[in-house]
Amino acid sequence: MEKREAILSCAKRLFARKGYDATSMDEVSKCADVNKALIYYHFKSKENLYSTILLHSISSIHDSIKARMDEISNPEEGLKIYIDAFYMEAIKNNAFFRILMREVASDGVHLSKKVLETFLGVLDILKEIIESGVEKGVFGERDTKVVHFLIVGTISFYLCSGELRKKIINDFLDREELLKDIGDVSQQLYEIIVRGLKSDV
Known about the structure:
By secondary structure, the chain is mainly alpha-helical. The chain is built from 11 helices and no strands. α1 crosses α4.
């Protein structure tokens, strides 16, 4: 089991840094200190290895939200849970969001049907939250995709740009206040989005 986890960890870092096409199974093998035969034993193919990595992260987000749905007493709480699930996954699994940004840039060319179905399952949860808010008169009619992209896009870009922002700060110390991290990003994002969703806006 340790070898399998080492393969997944190395492959995820390589896919995040180099992309799918530029990452070879030889590199994964060398990084994980295993022979290629063991990688193929566990994952059958590079495509399956890639999909396994994506499915694990997406399923983690989905299950994290679903596990807390029963405690939701209002749509605003549901939205906060949804945002927090993505944010916490991004904190512990930055590589997944880097891979995700690469896929968006390449029109999802390497996303399997199973990965896409799992993504849609997460999106369905947000749709339920927003529709519940509309029914209760809390939220106005909004496009679920737009809200989802605001959440995932903001979290992805914010966290994946962390090192770049540190570098820029070093070069432009007079702009440090503009570029440094300030406060709880998840909470700030929630407050901005929930105001935009309000039915009286």
